[in-house]
What does this fold into?
Amino acid sequence: MLVYDQRSAVAVGRVLLALIGLSGIGVIAAPASSETDVNSDDAVASIRVYNPTGWDGPVVTEVPTGDIAAPGLLDWEGVRLVSDGGEVPFAVREGTGHWKAKLVAPVEKPRAEDLLVFSVAVPPATWARIDVVPGKATGESAFSRVSALASGSGKLTIVYPNVKAVVDEATGMLLQLEAFGEDLLERPLAITLYEGTGDNRRPLEAPRVRLASSASNAAMTELNFVLSAPEAPALALTYRIHACGLVEIWSDERPWEGRSPWLDHEASCSLALKGEKETLPYLVNRAPFYGFKDYEKVVKTPAVVHRAPGAAVVELGEEFANGRHWNRRLYLADSQRAARAAGTAGAPCEAWSVGPLAELADEGFVVDVHPRKLVWSGGSATVTYPEKAAVAAEILTLALGEAGVKREAAASPGSQVPPDSGSIDLRLLDGPAAQGIEGDGFAVRLAVDGRAGAEIVAGTQFGLIQAALRVADSLRSDPGTPSLPLVARNPAVDMRAGGFGGGSFEVDFPHESDAQWEHALDGMIHSGMNVMADLSMWSNWRMTVTYKYLPEIRSDSPDALDEMTRTKFSEIDEHREHGLKLLDYLHRRGVKVWQWVPIGAVPTTFAEKHPEAMCPTAGPPARHGFSGKNVIPCHTHPVYRRFIEAYVRELLETYPIDGIVMIRDDNGGICDCDRCRESLASSRTKSPVWEQYLVLYDLLRSRGFTGDVAVYPYFDLYEPRLDPLLPEDLLIVGHGSANALLVRRYALVGPMGDTWIDNLFTGFRVAPSARMKRLLADRPGFWIGGAYCGTELAWESIGYFGSRPTATPNSFRYDWGKRTFGAEHALAYVHTVDAYEKLQEIYNLPMHPSNWVDLDAGQREAVSQEGWQELERFRNRLAELEQGAGDPAHAKWFAHVRLFGTYFEYHLRRLECFSRMQALVADTKSALTDPGGLAEAVRQELIALHREVYELSDKYDEEAARVPGNMLAETRRFDMTRPFKEWVAGYDASLEGRLATRQFSGSMEVAPGELAAGTPFTLRVSLENSGVIPWMAGVGQRIELSGEFEKLALPAQWDYQGDWMAFGDRRTVELAGKTPDGPGQARIKLEFLAPFRNRWAFITKEVSLAWK
It folds into this structure.
């Protein structure tokens, strides 16, 4: 039996709004509710919100209307939001990205992506519920027009109880902003368009301004302006003034055709606020500590607190360097609430705390939507589906069975449905846009033609998968009452892409079983990631070719290596079978699959068979491959072109891939022979690498390949000058692509704004989920990496926020926790991951050694205090979660995440020890000249501090040994759990130039004594340590000899042994040798190496020896 409450479908009248200005409108303090509260009897849907922060003031919440009910199921002008009998004012606004919005206000017939907007105040650590009920909404307008008598032009004035804004209608500029009686603007908003770029730009005349639309009610006022100037890009300027005190200002380009107008234009936006200013460093863009820095130069995310006597403002935003995109969100707080949050009532404004407000602004409420549903009460269900939707049907039938619904065997469309069975019809639409469905969007709605049941429609196979997963989630979350959520979704971003691979110590799933592959891929599919790249040479997912069209380079040799995929020829067949298996797995789920293709690389057998087609120069700018010899092809040689054609032909014949990612990877190089230089001189781009990209692009298109073609400009960053020279459909993705955001169409750019999503325990400073949301914004992205266990949120952010960019990080955490640990443990997971990601932020930013050394003593103490407090909170939260949800199936996850606490403890204490050692050395500089050396007590403290670091490292290493998984086993095998051996931890030679006294420093004197031909001798090497770090045995410190040392029978290496040497300690090492018979001379070099992972000599000495 199917139950559907028709009351919710009845339109109960249009919301009537009056003109300005009653006090007390716009915000309601929502009542507390338990975590298990359900909809009230009259509700057709409900929204539960939970406040995990310490802020108790009202905050804006935005929910896609499609998450509440599919379009057409609710008349949004005939419903109210009610909380504990009180009305919650709301508005509906466009939900698509501002850069492509139609600037419609008010929104009368919401699409799935359009947003329900309301404000509620929820006490900390409390759930509240807002019900959607039939009825006529009430409210008062907050919008008025007042003449500007001095100039004759109009002004637009918006007034809510605690905020007032005035906008000049003629210019669109914000003239006045008041909150809680404080004037907040230092000067009006200013937007300027320029002709030219950079230092050569000149301002244009004031643009024409048009008020495109406006809407206002008791919840929010929206104004949409269009600014345009001849031959310049047009801008959309939008204001949203919320009754609760949030002010949003957005400036974005308007859609354009043809050549990018941003190639020779720029814009600037300036908003100056009053008050004392404090930067919020955790919310500000930073360059990745491992990866390319281009994104941070292009995209800024200002985060500042402004404090005035009566109010505080948290200013958050994002802006591009050339003004193509700019926005600000101003969260306004009254002095009493800010003082109360700090526990300092009556204190001056500098003592107020808006940290909880900033946290809530960045991470948001937990928003848990209970949508409109079709209740399945008795009877069976028959799922019908087209062939392409077989996996979606399988997901549905499995979830229905788990929910206790008897289900018939899934049938093809048109099959007879038993009379006592309801049907769930999966359909792929021919014209989805006509039904309001875009991209991978979908709708779950009531069946048509009087049939009992529901239909799930989408325009793509992936859209049906997403719908099936949403329905399955709903069935599992409420098994007592099986029901189908009647919802819809249009993802905001079309390309939500990721690629997986890395060195063996960077990846936790690809080097083990297919089950682990599928677990990771399923998680990312569930999040909404719709494009996945096989990184091939970096992974054990490799789509290899046999070179059947270039048979002379095939080989049975065990050493023959195909540099295109880093695969041995003897393993090509095995990888092809596995590659096809994973490709099929993803295709059956509607995921687009791209192949990673390195340019400037060839198999080792090609270099052997065709030396004439190889780069004739061995030095720079040619690069050397992993094989250790020059294997760089000449990219203009006809034989190399034949190789590329053979490779592409077989690749496309073997694998039904959907895209190609071209990259000059670590094994790729550039030929600079005379022919290549001549070709370059007459080329389109004047770039040897970009010319290779275009050759491959042209070849793909000439062979009829219609899929995506992308460039990952790893070593060869994209430059705006290239834009008019490149094919219009060429995608620019990953590191090195950020400059494309300045000029290229957003749909063709997928930047990676931070480091690879990789192994936390080798020092990769992965962006937590809130930062991932800020980096992704409402534009495409392409991220690569390898580690998934413990970094799931970073990976799944790509799909989750790409589909719903206005969703809150806390909602994302809650959804992931509910799916993984069950609804009863979801909130515990939210609190755990909040602490986990705060540790990551501390580790990522102030604890990076290059940042730590710039802090003064007080700042370091504050970081330490915060770090130890957050570590304790993390461990307590994790223990609580494990106690409640510690199923054996999650043992690996808990072990990985628990290890991060030990890792964090080790690194925080290591920094504290290092700072103490620096201070001790700074206070005892005289030890280098004092004959008595360092005071013994100081010496022992230095040694004890460094010994503690190694003891902590041992503790961490021992725990890592117990954590399941290949990745950490490989990390340990490479010795990367040891001090100075980490991959990117920051304690390497790059830090030395930042220090007053280096980590490793010293002097070396060599005294050979009298030498005689044909006799043994002793080479005495006197060492003195003048660095902060004591020298010790067993960690890789050594003296290496080069030059003519063998002539003197000296050892090639002396490994440090014996007692530790602290700052100021001196010691003489004796190396035994023997001179040759007869007189002669020799020159040798001695290098004393630091224990870094990469070779670095911190003392070098060359000596000439002679004997008679």
